[in-house]
Amino acid sequence: MVKKIATVGDRDSVQGFASIGLEVFFADEKQDAEKLLKRLAKEEYAVIYMTEKLASMIPQEIEKYTEAVTPAIILIPGVSGNTGDGMRNVSRFVEKAVGSDIIN
Amino acid sequence: MAVMNVNPTRMELSNLKKKLVTAMRGHKLLKDKRDELMRQFLLLVRENKELRKKVEDGIRAASAHMAKAASVMSDEAVEVALMMPSQSMSVDVEEKNVMSVTVPVFKPEYKTAVDGEIYSYGYAFTSCDLDDAVKALSDIMPDMLRLAEVEKNCQLMAGEIERTRRRVNALEHVMIPQYQDTIKYITMKLDENERSNTTRLMKVKDMMLEKAHHYNYDG
What we know:
Largest sheet of chain A: 4 strands, parallel
Largest sheet of chain B: 2 strands, antiparallel
Shape of chain A: globular
Strand content of chain B: 5-15%
CATH topology of chain B: Helix Hairpins
Strand order of the largest sheet of chain B: 1-2
Structural class of chain A: alpha/beta
Distance between the termini of chain B: 47 Å
Oligomer: heterodimer
Radius of gyration of chain B: 37 Å
Number of domains of chain B: 1
Helix content of chain B: over 70%
CATH superfamily of chain A: ATPase, V1 complex, subunit F
């Protein structure tokens, strides 16, 4: 099934992704992000790239899609820098599966 | 000793023995599933970490170029330049089954107006930093998509491994010992009944002998 790819974040961080053919959505506030994520998940989006800053505002909303096959919500660093949340997420998977983070 | 609340009968005993066999087999199968999932997960998670590092570096570089471009161009100009992308991307999503975990496989589909043309604007009114930003993002895109696939797989597999591990532990440390203890309890109880029956018969025999022949063991 052919699905679309979305990028969500503040304008400066994500507008560049429009140039390579991804669909870009702007959100700065918690409420906007929640609404947007709900809408995108319902529509045919397989991958949603979201800035770490925005994602850190709506952890519960993102948690809902952990067990779903799509959409995959992938954190990316924004223009303001890398908070390390993305990497921490990966460590969290290892902790969940193995019991402790054995890969550094 | 964790003995279940059952009647010590032969029927319960044979039922429990059957259940124990099933539990042991289930335990072995689940343990194999957990080990295989873990092996695949560890491979994937290593790739995940590497990809993420690469992608984050790539995006940081692209953001730097973008910031430079935005500083020399007006917001409107940047927006106009990026308004009509010359390429569009979508993914073909297929589902794959890895040890009973359904995971997605993403196949990118690129559509470009002109082959190899990634810039959606003429070069006259844009900064070369914008070109660099677009180029950097375009280069990192295949890795980003692979990252999405790998990270989602890791996420789904981590959940499944956790569940499987819980099941294995529950079988190993609760169910199986419980069945074993109960089986032992019923066997002992049945043996005890058997012995008490034998003594009773011996006693009855003595009493009958005494009644018939005035014969007794004591004297």
